[in-house]
Write a structure and sequence with these properties.
heterodimer, A: mainly alpha, MetI-like fold, 2 domains, B: 503 residues, mainly alpha, 20 helices, BP-dependent_transpt_permease (chain A), transport (chain A), transmembrane helix (chain A), MetI-like_sf (chain A), ABC transporter permease (chain A)
Chain lengths: 338, 503
């Protein structure tokens, strides 16, 4: 995060030092504490209740998904395996109970199969956790790839202008012109069976256009700033100006759109898998689970609820985090209540 | 401006052409189109393979196949699929179905989304605003196919079962009344007392209304009746006049009230005509309504109030017409419900096969089939309009000229409708245009969930058979919509905001 004098002062005036009872301090223009941009952003983010709740929820989902069944060779604390079949106990109903005993419920306990079992007796908690792991992995890879490609293309187009910009933005327009479901679906079919990581990378290559456009817009205005002019006049190379001077100042916009891309990726991946164009067996994901057990909805509705609930939990928490980040990075955002 | 449009058009054509190349090349690589033919027994195999190879031009390089396709498309021929069926015919049916599916949902989502966003911005940081924000985020994070399947499984089945004995339980009445009351209470500006009054009266009114409807079995045989029509039209007249000009000026109010009166009288006079009208009759009546109510506004408004009286009167007229339309539709509900075995909300397809009925009954048939997909689509797409409208409104509300407007003593209504709304909605127009572009491609999921044979089935057919022709037909419409509406968005934005066009 660069700390340049004018924005630092301006922002600390915009932001009252504390939320409650700050009216007097602001009107008298007193009590202005110097803070770095990073501190300002962090403070604004931490005051955003929705974003904090989203952060906690996301953290819980990730921890649950990763530690429960473990990742790769590392075992988790849950003793059942997603692929082991077995005898179906009690019609495979969920044994999770959260209704405390003193309210007339069965007490808080996980039971043998907290999320129930499918028709061949696989533990649905383990299956859902496996699906959540894959969905999260895909979403993060998509976020990284899309952000990287979008940022580089946007920055080059915005900085060099002329034919570079024309060519890059036309490429962006071409990708935009193809509906995401069509482009990602076709690619999903072509790379089918080559693993989820490859699929995620290609999905990322379909979802970078928004970021490229935003970054280009930012770079277009930043490249006219005096400090860029100064850097150019002392002979700084274009690459150094872009990566050292311009991009650090667009980091807010990049982080926010990366977050929103991740939320979008969870939904897009599940939609593609639902249409049989994304993740395929033997791999599984949250969307794949919904497709697989779609016909069992009237008999075993829990097979349908749990993956859906996890998709919503992930997308919702990431969206809230993105909203909080947007407010935190927005210098106009003051959120003073009157 | 013309130069801007011409340049934008030129770029769009090239971009679209380039994207057809990309999609065509991807579409030829997805799957071996001869896979099924290879499984045939020895004798039939060669003949079948040769036939498909000939039909799809598999011996030619991809570039030749593309150019052939392109030349054909330029003459309006979309080619034949792997079985030798004309793609044109398939596309026509599919497109009609998709259009039917998305039109209502899009309009509803835009209107409701913007209205909720405006209200939420005007009541920033209240409980209402925070509830709306939270609900919008949840809707934004919903997987469409999941919601659709749930609605299908539970809402439709439960609603149809409930219609057999349509009484509402007291708990349900209480809950609905409480929600409506809370919403009304948080909408009112003022001290605690006036808000509590609004909350109390709205809750009580809603509870009484529901109880009466439930007790009289209204839901089994609904309808509005002349008195309710008259009252609603009157309310519409007052509401639209308040929005357009405020109630303090007489002529616009008179014009709207007279239009409402004419509408109520017309609903009684036109009974025989409305028994089983043609679609054209209904459209004609709507045009007539606009003409008459416009004339009423024009003459009553006089020189001074014409600009307020004409829109107030036309809006009232159209609203009254819509109420009468709804009433006729509702009156046919009992008959329709009987004719489909008491299950009016359908979960599969676009229409009941071989259904014959009056204009109203076939209208209800479409509505019953559209209800669930529309609900799912609106739920999912509502949120982005709400969020954007709210953000855009808040941005404008902090501008200096809005403060100036308040400072010089303009009424709150004038500030909001003339200064904030007009400028706040400029970015929304472009968002709406972009969104409409992507909606054809996005409807694929809804179609799949609700078993509509529409644009999505072209796509799936092509993918399943490794056949580029249906995929390209799908893309011509879905991608074409994106390119055209992106162009419209840019042009509209340039038109509304001169800073863009001059730079």
């Amino acid at each position: 995060m660069t700390r340049n004098a004018d924005s630092g002062v301006a922002k600390s005036q915009d932001t009252p030092p504390d939320d409650a009872g700050s009216g007097a301090a602001v009107t008298h223009g007193m009590n202005v504490v110097a803070r770095s941009q990073g501190q300002l952003v962090r403070r604004r983010f931490l005051r955003h209740k929705g974003a904090l709740a989203g952060m906690v929820l996301f953290f819980l989902v990730v921890v649950l998904a990763v530690t429960s069944i473990g990742a790769g060779p590392i075992p988790g604390w849950w003793d059942k395996d997603p692929s082991t079949t077995g005898s179906v106990v009690g019609e495979g109903r969920p044994t999770l109970s959260v209704w405390p005993g003193f309210l007339g419920g069965g007490g808080v306990s996980l039971g043998e199969h907290p999320f129930g079992q499918d028709n061949v007796g696989r533990d649905y908690f383990a299956l859902t956790m496996r699906g959540a792991q894959v969905s999260l992995l895909i979403a993060v890879i998509v976020g990284l790839v899309a952000t990287l490609v979008g940022t580089v293309i946007g920055a080059l187009a915005g900085y060099f202008r002329g034919w570079v910009e024309a060519a890059l933005m036309r490429v962006t327009d071409v990708v935009i012109a193809v509906p995401t479901l069509l482009l990602a679906g076709l690619i999903g079919v072509i790379v089918a069976g080559k693993g989820v990581v490859l699929f995620a990378i290609f999905l990322g290559l379909c979802m970078w256009t928004q970021i490229a456009r935003l970054v280009r817009g930012e770079v277009l205005s930043l490249r006219e700033k005096e400090y860029v002019e100064a850097a150019r006049s002392v002979g700084t190379s274009a690459g150094r100006i872009i990566f050292k001077h311009i991009l650090p100042n667009t980091v807010g916009i990049i982080i926010v759109s990366a977050t929103l891309t991740i939320a979008g990726a969870v939904l897009t991946e599940s939609a593609l898998s639902f249409l049989n164009l994304g993740v395929r067996p033997p791999d599984t994901s949250l969307g794949r689970l919904i497709t697989d057990y779609r016909t069992a909805l009237s008999v075993r509705p829990w097979l349908f609820y749990w993956p859906g609930a996890f998709i919503i939990a992930i997308a919702l928490s990431v969206n809230f985090i993105g909203d909080g980040l947007r407010d935190a990075f927005d210098p106009r955002q003051t959120r003073v209540r009157d | 401006m013309l130069v801007f449009i011409a340049r934008r058009l030129f770029v769009s054509i090239w971009v679209f052409l380039a994207s057809t190349v990309v999609v065509f090349f991807l579409a030829t690589r997805i799957r071996d189109p001869l896979a099924e033919a290879r499984q045939l027994p020895d004798g039939a195999r060669e003949a079948q393979m040769a036939e498909i190879t000939e039909r799809m031009g598999l011996d030619d390089p991809v570039i030749v196949r593309y150019l052939n396709w392109l030349l054909d498309v330029l003459t309006g021929d979309l080619g034949v699929d792997r079985q030798g069926q004309q793609v044109n015919a398939a596309l026509e049916n599919a497109f009609t179905a998709t259009l039917q599916l998305i039109t209502g949902a899009t309009v509803l989502a835009i209107v409701i989304g913007i209205a909720v966003g405006v209200v939420s911005a005007l009541r920033q940081y209240t409980a209402l605003d925070q509830t709306v924000t939270f609900v919008a985020f949840v809707c934004f994070s919903l997987p469409l196919f999941w919601v659709g399947t749930l609605l299908k499984q539970f809402l439709a089945l439960d609603f149809n079962d409930w219609l057999a004995d349509p009484t509402i339980s007291p708990v349900f009445i209480g809950t609905i009344a409480l929600i409506v009351g809370l919403a009304c209470g948080s909408l009112v500006v003022g001290d605690r007392r006036s808000r509590l009054t609004a909350f109390g009266s709205a809750t009580a009114a809603m509870a009484v209304l529901l109880a009466v409807l439930s007790a009289t079995g209204w839901f089994a045989d609904p309808g509005l009746g002349p008195i309710v029509i008259a009252l609603t039209a009157l309310g519409g007249a007052l509401g639209f006049t308040t929005l357009v000009s405020g109630l303090e000026w007489k002529p616009p109010l008179q014009a709207a009230l007279i239009t409402a009166g004419v509408g109520v009288v017309a609903s009684l006079a036109l009974r025989p005509v409305l028994k089983d009208p043609e679609l054209l009759t209904v459209v004609g009546l709507a045009l007539l309504t606009v003409a008459i109510s416009g004339a009423v506004g024009w003459f009553l408004g006089g020189e001074l109030y014409r600009r307020a009286a004409v829109p107030a009167s036309i809006l009232t007229g159209l609203f009254a017409g819509a109420v009468i339309f709804t009433d006729r539709m509702l009156q046919s509900f009992a008959d329709y419900s009987d004719s489909v075995g008491g299950r009016p909300i359908s979960t599969i397809g676009a229409e009941t096969p071989n259904y014959q009925g009056t204009f109203w009954e076939s209208g209800l048939d479409s509505a019953g089939h559209l209800a669930l997909p529309t609900l799912a689509l609106v739920l999912v797409s509502l949120a982005s309009y709400t969020r954007y409208t709210r953000a855009s409104m808040l941005e404008v509300m902090n501008q200096d000229y809005v403060r100036t407007g308040r400072a010089k003593g303009l009424s709150e209504r004038a500030v909001v409708t003339r200064h904030v709304l007009r400028n706040g909605l400029i970015p929304i127009t472009t968002l709406v245009a972009y969104d409409i572009g992507t909606i054809v491609g996005g409807a694929v999921l809804t179609e799949e969930v609700f078993g509509w044979s529409a644009m999505g089935s072209l796509l799936f057919q092509g993918i399943e058979q490794g056949d580029p022709m249906p995929i390209m037909a799908f893309f011509l419409v879905a991608g074409g919509a994106i390119v055209v509406f992106n162009m419209i968005a840019d042009i509209v934005y340039a038109f509304l905001d001169p800073r863009i066009r001059l730079s």
